[in-house]
Amino acid sequence: MQSSAANLLVLVPLLPLVGAVCTVLLGRRLGPRAHLPAVAGIGAAAVVALLLLLGTANQVGGGHADPTHPVEPVEMISTLWQWATVGDSRSGDLPAAEVGVPLAPGSAVTGGAFSIPIALRLDPLTATLLTIITGVGLLVAIYSIGYMHDDPGYPRFFALVAMFVFSMSMLVAASNFLLVYVFWEAVGACSYLLIGFWYTKPEAARAAKKAFLVNRVGDFGLALATFLLWMTYGTLNFHDTHLADGTIVEGILGEFRLADEVGYVGGAVGTAICLLMLLAACGKSAQMPLHVWLPDAMEGPTPASALIHAATMVTAGIYLITRSAPLFVGCPGALTMVSIVGATTALVAALIATVQNDLKRVLAYSTISQLGYMFVALGTGTMLGFTAAIFHLVTHAFFKALLFLGAGSVMHAMGGVIDMRRFGGLRHVMPITAATFLVGACALAGVAPFAGFFSKDEILAALHAKAHPEAHGSDHAEAGSAGERPRDLAGGVGLVASVPVRPFRPGSMITRVSLSDAHDVSHEKVGLDALDHPSTWRLLFWMSLLTAGLTAFYTFRAVFMTFTGPVRVPKEAGHHAHESPSVMTMPLLVLAVLSAFSGVVLFATNALSGFLSATPSLTAPAVVRTAVPHVFHWEIAIQGTLAAAIGIAVAAIGHLGRRSDSPQLERYLGPLGTLFANKFYFDQIYAALIVKPLEALSLVTAFFDRAIVDGTVDAIGQVPLAWGSAIRRMQSGLVQRYALAGVVGVLAIVLALAWQLRP
Amino acid sequence: MGIAPTLAVTQPAFWPLTLILFLPAIVAGILALPIIPRGKDDSVRWVGLATTIAVFILSLWMAVPAIFGAGSPGQFTVGDAGMQAVVKQPWIPAFNIEYLLGVDGISMPLVLLTTFLSVLAAAASWPIEKHVRPYWILFLLLETGMIGVFVSLDFFLFYVFWEVMLLPMYFLIGIWGGPRREYAAIKFFLYTLAGSVLMLLAILMLYFASDIRSLSDDQLLATHVVSPALEGADRAAALTAVHSHPKPVHTFNLLALAAIGQSPASPFAATSFWGMTLESWAFLLLLIGFIIKVPVVPVHTWLPDAHVEAPTPISMILAGVLLKLGGYGILRICYPICPGAGLSFAWLVCGLGVVSMVYGAFAALAQKDFKRMVAYSSVSHMGYVMLGLGVWSAVAGHEYQWDAWAQGVNGAMFQMLAHGISSAGMFFMVGVLYDRVHHRNLEEFGGIFNRMPLYASLAVAIFFAGLGLPGLCGFIGEVLVTLSSWNYSRLLAVCSAFTVILTAAYILWAIQRVYLGAEYKGPHGDHLTPMTRRELAIAVPLVVLAIVFGVAPQLIFNYITPTVNRQVETLAEWTRSIHDGHPAAAGAAAAATDDGAVGFQAAIDSFSVGGGR
Fold this sequence. Notes:
The complex is a heterodimer of chains A (759) and B (613). Chain A has 759 residues and is mainly alpha-helical. Chain A is 64% helix and 4% strand. Chain A folds into two domains: 2-657 and 670-677, no CATH class; 683-756. In chain A, strand 3 (241-242) and strand 4 form a beta hairpin. The N and C termini of chain B lie far apart (69 Å). Chain B is mainly α and 613 residues long. Chain B contains 23 helices and three strands.
């Protein structure tokens, strides 16, 4: 069973990779059917992923009526080969003879060898994300058959999409931080190539470079976090490694460390690791201050935007933090920072989105804002928060992909125009697109009972619990109070009792090799931890609620501007503006169904959160303790719905039935409107504070290199010449002068000898 | 001396190694004779190319026995840490100078890189029309020089090859180069010569301070001072001859010098002038000679000029092989022979590495000339090599953890090989464009992707390898080096990790300006023809290797790790003995036993399923 599952797991990334390679090799020959290998590869991977999801769900077991009851972690590791092994390979699968060497005390920190196995894992989190990645990937690939049909780069597009699906699957299936880093960069490279897909457009080339560079700043954070993890834990593996002689090398997220109450470092080191990971997540998930690349990334083809820059790749940051949940829960300050970053980003991006006129930009800022929402949930550090974030990730993948594909459908029909002020009443021209777009908009705005309503509700509930710890019962008393984190083990005995005891595999508990001295690192408070206070969470809750209202406003503003009012079609569309072909509308319909019903189904059955709670990372005692019964939060739902209703109402007042090029509501905003329209001047500030100084520094370096360093070299090169020309003057040809020099020389020698021989 | 000379020709590695080394020179000599008539330039080219291919196949036969069916004597045993295929023949007995060759896990991959890049550079030399015959003679002489440096185990021989390499390079740049070729060539020559003179000084210092009588019998055999091939009475006689010598017996043998340098009572540790030890002086003199070659800021300015003026194939050789000689020298000579100085100057080596890294990246960012930009990227990338070689982490916190240092040195070695592939590729890609449009101004390109899609795809792949994208060759070395330097100094580690952002900036900016965009903006746009088959035959192997090195780095580590780990461990033991005052462990370098606790493994676990339930 396990080995067949392992084989299946390998297929998920492998099939799209094969598709990509085939497209590259056969692209020319296949001509207009160049999409076949990629679509087939991704489709087959989607089927496999679904099978794995069902298999994993089966393993978790259904019906977790009581989520506070600890769930057995479910994971399966499949090690393919050792990628790179350098040095004393203590943490790898090494011959038994080598293992007998006892670890000298103190050597543990760096005693591990650098050994990176290509290990894939399957657990509920990975299975969920694999299904989303391949599923949405398949729909987007099918849609692209219509959207990209006469593009000269047709094969290249499908090769890149398949390559992306491969990289992204590997990212969420990798069981090692360095592998995560590898595919973290690989998805960035795919994103770079897809943003710059229409490379002849200078804006596209610029946007691609910007995306890669801003992401590299985040990657820098991930690299440093990886190094710190390596130094702290002595391994980069997630999983425990079972050696031939029965020794077990603890992985960072392996079952032994997870069960260990003091398995994770807190304090300054832990917080540094978490903040660096947050930096990485900010880069990939376009959170402030690294969000500036995502709006520009809309220069790429719309299906790529839907898949990469809305549904999947940008959620890598959420994945990373969820995966590292045990590391984060020990660092309340860092966790709170996650929420602060998320809430601020959500609010700022929503404000910017309210005044954008480019439909894709609206959706881009909306993506940034919704990702911020997920960060807010993650930052609560509770079981509810983590599952709510992934829940929102799932529903967001459906409805944002739907909205982007809908926008693409509009763009396709309108001859490439995407400025909403030039559209109007398109529901008469393209009814399917309009209807599905409306479904997506309802889901995004959080209208009940569409998908977004339930996931957003969960997030707000998680926040509310942190903001009002007293109102949410005493079974998770530590939530929200800075003083009683699981890290403080002053009275730890009582807490340890609640750790779920997991049966060890029989016979495997011979020796455990911990490569970390986590126990010795003090768990002192860091200044940042003071942020974790109910008042902070109250502020964050209200910011999120405000964001919910703004989201509803800009979403329906876009709907009203594009699809209602008098019919207006830009002249670029020609005379035959029409609904898109069925190969494009079919994916829209599928996604619309998912956007409409996935939320209510997943919420009512509580299937997703029950399933996710069996993810090893979420079985850490510190997370399990925070689990609460699954209930519907009426008061929060009402607040959320109210916010959405107000937003929709304002949008209706401003835009419903009007010409979209008429004066807009933003004229009432005054200077604020200018601020929003200019995106809070982030690009200008970065240009002035970072780009220009670095450019200047590089020019100074180049000048220094030429003038000073090389100048010195050339000057030294002149010395022999100067010396030579000085000496040349002595060869004047005047015999008298030579004679004089001779006499002087003899005199000098005589004097020197006399000095030497002096008594 | 009294050491019975062994008949070198009977040594199994004599012919393979000697042929690899001298075949190019012999062919160069033949080409110099009027055998191929005048005007038959193509015949000269084919002879030259065939020679490089023959040498490559020979080195492949030696280095990768698996291809040819393993087992022949003289072939390299992968995974063996020690010096292999040693060839020993007295050359100038009066000064104990020997024809002493050998390869180990450090030099074998570099020899292979040299012979491989020589084939590609030979193929890239086709468009050279001027003075074809002299060009190929010098080219082949250059190959002999380069290989000679890597396989020499005698310091004097090493020096001879080092100089042999210098002259052909001078003429290749000075005659076949661009408009400022004479300036560039003389600059290259003087720079390298300055380094050579300092090196010679150090060689003589070490020679006259050395005395092989202090070595034990085992060490004498392990360092090949007394050939281990000798049996019974001959061996005993040879050993006795050494020990009973009335006067100090000096040596140029690099292995013996290393054994002496690491012995507890090292004569090199004696204080010399200005209060510094002899080995400190030797280390610094050698280091200057080698870092000029690497090159390291501030002695790097010959590189951009030499690269810009050199013809494409020579740029490939220059970046791909010549720069590695510096790193090789530091690894092979500086550290083992002068470990005390290496310990005290670790900060210098690491600091220079990081300065080069950052400085080179900033300078590359500002360049307008495509080739000059790639040249500065070499300065930046070779900084990683320096940092990796220098992280003497055994002193960090006085914990004798050699793992981190081993990571650094392994990373540096890998970086050298990877950079050999990626930089040669980048220079070739620049050359392809230059051959067509005859300019290199970054501002006057654009739209190449549209005009030459296949070429642009390959070029972007190679540039991404240079950028250090995971899955391509540039990544592994950088990660290992940065990871290891973390233990030594966090500041340096953060700086080197930060450099990847700058690297991405200059490479992506160049890609944007050259390959992307709508229209080609420069002159001779109509000459932008697709790649020829010859050009493809050069570019594709480089791209393939860049991917293979990135996906399966273990192929390379199989060669380098055992040797590197043993050297590092020996030096770490030496450090421990210095710090703790246990001289027992010292001097182990020479005892070339293979029990170095080198946890080396090449396990390829096929689908092993572990983990939880």
